[in-house]
Design brief:
Distance between the termini: 21 Å
Structural class: alpha+beta
Helix content: 25-40%
Number of strands: 3
Strand content: 15-25%
Radius of gyration: 13 Å
Shape: globular
Largest sheet: 3 strands, antiparallel
Amino acid sequence: VSSPKKRCKETLADLLGTRTPKTEILEALDEQGPRESLPSLSKRARVFCQWWKSEDLGTVILCSHADWLPLALKELLGLDLDLKKGAFAWVRRKGKRVRLLEVRQWV
C-alpha cells in the first residue's frame, strides 16, 4: 500500500520491479498536511492500522512518509523508529500476530 504522493508510488514501483502484486494507493498513508495536527496524523495512522489488522491482507509493504510510518510501526509493533524520507516497511499479519519483516531506508 502506498501514499498517493508520486515519490512513494515511484519507490514502490522500483522495489517491486517487474512483479505485479496488487498495489493500493491510500490517502490514509499520506504525509502530514500543512494544517494537520500531530494528534490528527497519529489518529489517521492508528485508524489505518486498525483497518489493516481487521482485513485478511497477509504481507504488505507500507510505503509512506517519515512522519507517518514511525507512528504506524509504533501502533502495530510498539517500535520507536527514527526514519527519514525514502523509508518503507514490510510487515506481515498472520492471525493476530504482526511481524516486521524489513525496514529499509533509501539513501
